[in-house]
Amino acid sequence: MTAYQQARDEALGDPEAFWMRESARIDWMEPPTRALDSSAAPLYRWFPGAWLNTCANALDRHVTAGRGARIAIQYDSPVTGTKRAITYDELLDDVSRFADVLATLGVGYGDRVLIYMPMIPEAVVAMLACARLGAVHSVVFGGFAPAELAVRVDDATPTVVVTASCGIEPSRVIPYKPLLDEALVLARHVPAATVVLQRPQVVAELGDRDVDWSVAMSAARPRAAVPVRATDPLYILYTSGTTGKPKGVVRDNGGHAVAMAWSFDAVYGMGPDDVWWAASDVGWVVGHSYIVYAPLIVGATTVLYEGKPVGTPDAGAFWRVVDEYGVSALFTAPTAIRAVRKEDPDALLLAHYDVSSLRGLFLAGERLDPDTYHWATDHLGVPVIDNWWQTETGWPIAANLRGLDPMPIKPGSPTVAVPGYDVRIVDGEGTELPAGQDGAIVIRLPLPPGTLPTLWGDDQRYVDSYLSVFEGCYTTGDGGYVDEDGYVYVMGRTDDVINVAGHRLSTGAMEAVVATHPLVAECAVIGVHDDLKGQVPRAFVVLKSGVEIDPAVLQRQIVTAVRDQIGPVAALKEVVIVPGLPKTRSGKILRRTMRGIADGRPELVPSTIEDVRVLDAISHLLTGGGQGGEPPPRP
Ligand code: COA
Ligand code: AMP
C-alpha cells in the first residue's frame, strides 16, 4: 500500500485517529479529546471542547522556540520600490500592539473586523491581530467597488474597519478611503471606527470616526493571545455564488490550523526552513491560507508581493523574486503563467536569474490547460503541480501530494483526492458514475477539518446551497470525472459562477447590474473562453422594443455600470446586442446551453433540449456575435 493509499483510507475510515494524530502539529491551550462532532449533522464541527489561539500558533510559538530572528515575511513591492524583511520577533510585536489598537476601539472576542487593504504587511498584521483577540476578520479584495463592500459590511456588521489610504495598480494609484467612505454611506450598518494606514502615495482625509494607524500604534501596548474555542470562527471570506448576494464562507480556528499545518507539509512539501511564495492576494482564499496562515503556522518565510508579477515595472518578477529570496516553491494561477508566456514566449528572462532553489510550481484557481502546463514544465524543469480547491474548502480537494507521496503527473488533472475528501462523481439523480464518466463532482460528508462549517449567520443557506442537491454530499459546483487510476479531472463549473484571471465572479451579480440599464429589456451574462484570463464575461442584451442606441455607447455605459457597481475586477468588457435570448418552454434563459456553445464544448449541452432549431439560433448568436442576426425561434 502506498503512503497515499494508507493516509486516504485512514482519513476516511478512521477520521478520529487520523486527525487526532495530525492535531499534534498545533499548540493547544486545551488539547482536543476528540476530532469530529457529528451531533448536528449535516453541520459537522472539528475538535469540540479544544481551545487554542491561531495567532499564537502563527507567531508566539516560533518566538518561544527561539526562531524569532527568522524572517516571517519578505515584503517585495516593485510598485512602490520597497522591500522589507520582517522577522517573527518584529511581526509578533506589530501584531500584539495592533491587537491593542483594535481592543481599545472596542473589538473583543467574536466581534468582526473588516479589512480592505492592498498587499502590504499591515494587512497580515491586521488579520493576525484579530485572531489574537478572538475577533473575526473579513478581508475584502481591493478590486471590489463600494456597493460590493457595503453588502459585506451589512452582512458581517464589523465593529471596526481597517484600510489603507490607497492601493497601487501598475496603471494607477487607487485611493481606497473614498471608496470605503462611499460604501459606508451605502451600508446600513455603522462601524464604530475606521483605522487608516496612510501611505506616502496618497494621504487620506480623516473624519471623526477615523483613526490614524501610526498614531494609534505609537500609543499601543502588546496584548496577549486569548484562548478561543477550536470551533469559534477565525474569519469570514465572501465569495461569489450564483446570485448577486455573496456567500460568507466561515472558517473555524482549530480545524483550520490543523489543516493548514498538515497541507503545507503533505500537499506542498514545505517546512519551517522553506521560503514560500503564493503570488495571489490576501483578498482571496489562496492569500488567506497560503500567503498568511499555513506558512506562518509552520514557521516558514512567506513572500508578500505587491504588484503584478508580469508587465511593468518588473517583467521578470517571478524569476527575480525566486532568485532574490531563494524561493523553494511558487504558487500562482495558470493565468499568471499565461501572461508571462505571452510577454516572454521563449522564457528568455529566465536566463537572467538563478532559480535553482525552486522545487516546484503550484497552480490553482482555474483549470490548468495542458499547453500552459507543458510550457512551464519545459522552461522551469521542476514539477508543475495543479491543485483543485475552492474558497469553501480552504485547502486542496485534489492534489499531487508532494510531501506525502509524489505521484506521476497527468496533464489536465490536479491528480488524486486529498486524504479527508471523499470525492464522488454523480449524475443528475445522484447516482454514482463509474470511472471515466463525466458528472457533478460532490464530496461525501463530513468534509475534513478546515473546510467551511457553515455560511456566516445562515446555516439554512449553507444547507440549501451545498448540502441539499445530493443526499449526504457537499456539492462543489464543478463538473468532471475520475479516471481508472483515481485521477480527478475538473472540467468547469456547472453553475453560473465564472473564473476570470483566477478570480471567482458571479454572472448573476453582473446580470443584475446590466438589467438596470434603462434600455435593456433582458440580458444574460456568460463566461466565454479567453486565451489569457481563462474566461471573460460577455453580456448578451435584448433592447426594449422600439428603442435604438449606438452599440458602442451602450457597451460603454454597461461596462462603466459594472465597474462602478461590482468593481474593475469583474472585467466585463464585451456587450452584444441580440434580438432575443434562447429560452426553455417555461421561459428560463438557457445559460448553460449558451455557455457550452460559447466554450466550444457542445458536449455540455443538456440532452433535454429537443428543439435543434433553438441550438442553431444560439450558435449563431454566440459564434456570429448576434448583431443584426435573425431572432432565435421560440420553442
Ligand atoms: N485593487 C483595485 N483594482 C484591481 C485590483 C485591486 N487589488 N486587482 C485588480 N484590479 C483591477 C485591475 O487594475 C484591472 O483594471 P483595468 O480593467 O482598469 O485594467 C481589473 O481589476 C482586472 O484585473 P485583472 O483581472 O487582474 O487583470 P489584469 O489584466 O490587470 O492582469 C493578470 C491579469 C493575469 C496578470 C493578473 O490577474 C494576475 O497576475 N493574476 C494572478 C492570479 C491571481 O492572483 N489569482 C488569484 C487566485 S490564485
Ligand atoms: P475560488 O473559490 O475563488 O477558489 O474558486 C473555486 C473554483 O475555481 C472552483 O470551484 C473551480 O471551478 C475553479 N478551480 C480552482 N482550482 C482549479 C483547478 N485546479 N482546476 C480546475 N478548476 C479550478
Topology:
Elements: H1 3-13, H2 15-22, E1 36-40, E2 43-46, E3 51-52, H3 54-64, E4 71-77, E5 82-87, H4 88-104, E6 112-116, H5 121-133, E7 136-139, H6 146-156, E8 160-164, E9 166-169, E10 172-175, H7 176-186, E11 193-197, E12 210-212, H8 213-218, E13 228-229, E14 233-239, E15 247-252, H9 254-266, E16 275-278, H10 285-298, E17 301-305, H11 317-325, E18 329-332, H12 334-343, E19 360-363, H13 370-380, E20 384-388, E21 398-399, E22 416-417, E23 422-426, E24 439-444, H14 459-467, E25 473-482, E26 488-493, E27 497-500, E28 503-506, H15 507-514, E29 520-530, E30 534-543, H16 551-565, E31 574-577, H17 591-598, H18 612-624
Parallel strand pairs: 4-17, 6-7, 6-8, 8-11, 11-12, 16-17, 16-18, 18-19, 19-20, 30-31
Antiparallel strand pairs: 1-2, 3-13, 4-5, 9-10, 14-15, 20-21, 21-22, 23-24, 24-25, 25-26, 27-28, 29-30
Helix pairs in contact: 1-2, 3-4, 3-5, 3-10, 4-5, 6-7, 9-10, 12-13, 17-18
Describe, in plain words, how this protein is organized in 3D.
There is one protein chain. This protein is of the alpha/beta class. The protein folds into two domains: 3-307 and 389-479, Rossmann fold, CATH 3.40.50.12780; 499-625, GMP Synthetase, Chain A, domain 3 (2-Layer Sandwich), CATH 3.30.300. 31% of the residues lie in helices and 24% in strands. It contains 18 helices and 31 strands. A nine-stranded mixed β-sheet has the order 5-4-17-16-18-19-20-21-22, sandwiched between helices. The protein has a five-stranded parallel β-sheet with strand order 7-6-8-11-12, with helices on both faces. A four-stranded antiparallel β-sheet has the order 23-24-25-26. A hairpin with a 2-residue loop joins strand 27 and strand 28 (503-506). Helix 3 packs across helix 4, helix 9 (254-266) crosses helix 10 and helix 17 crosses helix 18 (612-624). The longest helix is centred in the N-terminal third of the chain and has 17 residues, at 88-104. Mean pLDDT is 93; it is low at 603-611 and 625-635. Bound molecules: coenzyme A and adenosine monophosphate (AMP). Adenosine monophosphate (AMP) binds next to strand 20, strand 25 and strand 26.
